[in-house]
């Protein structure tokens, strides 16, 4: 049977992708951002996941205002890299796992999560920057990827509790898939940042640190956190953190934090990254 | 957690956040064509057409005069006020070869250098930036 073996979270800042693509990772500004991923890159080489379920948000790339799915799952065999306005990132095409993705879609719908099924979709920095951070600059990605795209742009996004429950449903789906696969789930986006208006540049280290602590120590508090708290405390784009709760819900009640990295700033954003393991 | 939410109170809270325009249904409707215009700049050939004749390109979209003026002036706060969403507006500053940090900085009234310096020293503090009515 397929096994959900680990989860991780990471920010997915576009400038971080650009820094890698343009060979700037050893510059003084960027070095501390990337240093915190070295542990994870080495760990991941040993983990060898077959599939990564990657929770992210599309940034007006695959989805425009015509259609706004709250929860969408990429069921294609492969996903091209989006041109976000300056040409596609020079990274490999993303290979999907259509059979497992369709299995998760069917299982979640029967579990009362009405997923939108996506058969053709370009993927943007929200998905490719995490892959680059964890797998490095490679000719082909070493794992297949199932994109889960969450609307966190047009209000209201899903509640934290709804995200958590979807994570639990995804975990049940993975556990009922017959092939023996090592599956990870990644929650991306965040941490505190605001990209718009006179309040742009807001960073809240104290709140971010408490959020990271609660992933392990008090996840129920995160589950009940209303949108307004994210907006007030973590900036208008900090709402992306609800996506981390899909990952957290999937890992189950007992987990262990293996690694943590927090750094301010990368461009406009606080970088947050943790690696978590279910202890069952 | 399953109690019904008061949608009016939920939406009203968003107007209490200083210097922030939350992308609600009202703004999504107001800015629909502005955001779809911005989206069209994801195609290289549209970027070229826009750069060659910005006003002519904008005239092909059902935009208000205020929306067109805001785009031509690259006034991102005005574009937000007209229903633009920052992820869509990103296609405009990307077409200009500008970064998210440039665009974010431009909305704060700070110079790009001062904004970048603020970020390096830890960003904008949330103190006094959480709530207008509670002054916290």
Outline the structure in words.
- The complex is a heterodimer of chains A (280) and B (136).
- Chain A is α/β, with parallel strands linked by helices.
- Chain A has one domain: Protocatechuate 4,5-dioxygenase, Chain B, CATH 3.40.830.10.
- Chain A has helices at residues 14-21, 31-35, 38-47, 98-110, 125-135, 160-175, 205-217, 219-223, 227-234, 244-251; strands at 3-10, 51-56, 71-74, 78-79, 94-95, 116-118, 144-150, 182-188, 255-266, 269-278.
- In chain A, strands 6-3-7-2-8-1-10-9 form an eight-stranded mixed beta sheet, with helices on both faces. In chain A, strands 4-5 form a two-stranded antiparallel ribbon.
- In chain A, a hairpin with a 2-residue loop joins strand 9 (255-266) and strand 10.
- In chain A, helix 4 (98-110) packs across helix 6 and helix 6 (160-175) crosses helix 10 (244-251).
- The radius of gyration of chain A is 17 Å and the shape is globular.
- The mean pLDDT of chain A is 97.
- With 136 residues, chain B is mainly alpha-helical.
- Chain B folds into two domains: 22-96, Dioxygenase LigAB, LigA subunit (Protocatechuate 4,5-dioxygenase, Chain A, Orthogonal Bundle), CATH 1.10.700.10; 99-131, no CATH class.
- Chain B is built from ten helices and no strands.
- The longest helix of chain B is centred in the middle third of the chain and has 10 residues, at 86-95.
- Chain B is globular, with a radius of gyration of 17 Å.
- Chains A and B meet through helix 9 of A and helix 1, helix 3, helix 7, helix 8 and helix 9 of B.
Characteristic terms for this protein:
heterodimer; A: alpha/beta; eight-stranded mixed sheet; two-stranded antiparallel ribbon; 10 strands; B: 136 residues; mainly alpha; Protocatechuate 4,5-dioxygenase, Chain A; 2 domains; 10 helices; globular
């Amino acid at each position: 049977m397929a096994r959900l073996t680990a989860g991780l979270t990471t920010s997915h800042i576009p400038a971080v992708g650009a820094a890698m693509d343009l060979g700037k990772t050893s510059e003084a500004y960027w070095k501390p951002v990337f240093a915190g991923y070295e542990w994870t890159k080495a760990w991941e080489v040993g983990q060898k996941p077959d599939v990564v379920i990657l929770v992210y948000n599309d940034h007006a790339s695959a989805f425009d205002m015509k259609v706004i799915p709250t929860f969408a799952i990429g069921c294609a065999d492969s996903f091209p890299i989006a041109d976000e306005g300056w040409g596609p990132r020079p990274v490999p095409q993303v290979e999907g796992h259509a059979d497992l993705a369709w299995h998760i879609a069917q299982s979640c719908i029967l579990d009362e999560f009405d997923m939108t099924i996506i058969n053709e979709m370009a993927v943007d920095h929200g998905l490719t920057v995490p892959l680059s951070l964890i797998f490095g600059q490679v000719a082909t990605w070493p794992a297949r990827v199932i994109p889960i795209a969450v609307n966190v742009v047009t209000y209201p996004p899903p509640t934290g509790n709804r995200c958590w429950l979807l994570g639990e449903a995804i975990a049940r789906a993975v556990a009922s898939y017959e092939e023996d696969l090592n599956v990870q789930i990644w929650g991306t986006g965040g941490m505190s940042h605001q990209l718009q208006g006179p309040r742009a540049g807001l960073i809240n280290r104290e709140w971010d640190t408490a959020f990271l602590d609660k992933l392990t120590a008090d996840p129920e508090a995160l589950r009940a956190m209303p949108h307004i708290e994210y907006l007030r405390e973590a900036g208008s784009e900090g709402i992306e953190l609800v996506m981390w709760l899909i990952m957290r819900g999937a890992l189950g009640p007992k987990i262990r934090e293996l690694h943590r990295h927090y750094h301010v700033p990368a461009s406009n954003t606080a970088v947050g990254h943790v690696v978590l393991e279910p202890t069952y | 957690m399953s109690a019904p939410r008061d949608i009016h109170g939920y939406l009203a809270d968003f107007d209490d956040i200083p210097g922030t325009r939350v992308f609600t249904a009202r703004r999504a409707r107001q800015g629909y064509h502005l955001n779809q215009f911005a989206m069209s700049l994801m195609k290289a050939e549209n970027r070229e057409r826009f750069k060659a004749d910005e006003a002519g390109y904008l005239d092909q979209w059902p935009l208000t005069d205020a929306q067109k003026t805001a785009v031509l002036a690259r006034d991102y706060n005005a574009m937000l006020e007209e229903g633009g969403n920052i992820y869509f507006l990103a296609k405009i500053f990307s077409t200009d070869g500008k970064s998210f940090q440039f665009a974010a900085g431009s909305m704060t009234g700070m110079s790009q250098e001062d904004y970048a310096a603020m970020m390096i020293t830890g960003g904008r503090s949330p103190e006094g930036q959480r709530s207008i009515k509670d002054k916290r």
